[in-house]
Amino acid sequence: MDGDVEFLFGHPDSAGRPFVMRIRELPGTIVPAHQHPVDEHITVVSGTWYFGAGERFDSTALRELKAGAYAFAPAGTTMFGYSPDGAVVQVHGVGPFHIHWRDRVSVLDEPGGAVAFRFRKGDEVVSPRGSGHIRQGYASGTLVQYEVVRSDGSIFMVREEQLRRR
After folding, report:
1. Contact, 87 vs 46, CB < 8 A?
2. What percent of the chain has pLDDT over 70?
3. Domain identity same for 134 and 60
4. Are residues 93 and 139 in the same domain?
5. To which H or E segment does residue 24 belong?
6. Of 97, 135, 102, the residue nearest 19 (C-alpha)
7. pLDDT of 3 strictly over 90
8. Omega into 96 within 30° of 0, i.e. cis?
9. Is 50 exceeded by the pLDDT of residue 1?
10. How many domains does the chain have?
11. Average per-residue pLDDT in the chain?
């Protein structure tokens, strides 16, 4: 997801150093189960973010966090998230901050990555969120989702099973 992270202070790779970053979540984004080796302080800056903990994405375990809400995830917590309408989430902690995906993440345009995807970059598609063309794809375990660009330039995420060719 191009341009989805902004570093406000420090850098999350710096061991023993504080960092603050903002993550722009596109409408429809599901963040698969993952862990971080450090405590994570989460504040929703705008929009609504749904946050949950567990070994697999489970929509029934999500907790709604509206703009201004705070959540804490201790180091090693397996967590996941969902952004139905887009959100900006601020994360701060002390590095090094790395993502350890529960199930490997494949990207559509990485070498060998296309094997996990039914659609390709540039494909014209229709979804419940509207129509557009595929910009990127992400697969983790059974979750396959795509960035779709509308004709007006806006971008959203959609799960593969919700897409059909135009």
Report:
1. yes
2. 98
3. no
4. no
5. strand 18-25
6. 97
7. no
8. yes
9. no
10. 2
11. 95
Q: What is the CATH number of the domain that holds 112?
A: 2.30.30
Co-location of 116 and 78 in the same domain: no
Same domain? 68 vs 39:
yes
Tokens of 67: 């703009």
Separation between Cα atoms, residue 62 and residue 58, nearest integer Å: 7
My answer on whether 63 and 137 are in the same domain is no
* 76-100: pLDDT as tens digits: 999 999 999 999 999 999 999 999 9
Q: Are residues 60 and 109 in the same domain?
A: no
Query: Same domain, yes or no, for 80 and 123?
Result: no
Domain of residue 148, residue span: 105-165
Model confidence at 2: pLDDT above 70: no
What CA–CA distance (Å, rounded) separates 136 from 138?
7
Residues 6+ apart with CB under 8 A from 38: 75, 93, 94, 95, 96, 97
pTM of the model: 0.92
What local confidence, expressed as pLDDT, does residue 10 receive?
97
Rounded Cα distance between 16 and 26, Å, is 30
Q: How far apart are the C-alpha atoms of 64 and 50, rounded to whole Å?
A: 5
Amino acid at 132: G
CATH code (residue 68) = 2.60.120.10
Q: Specify the amino acid at residue 8.
A: L
For residues 28 and 40, what is the distance between their CA atoms, to the nearest angstrom?
23
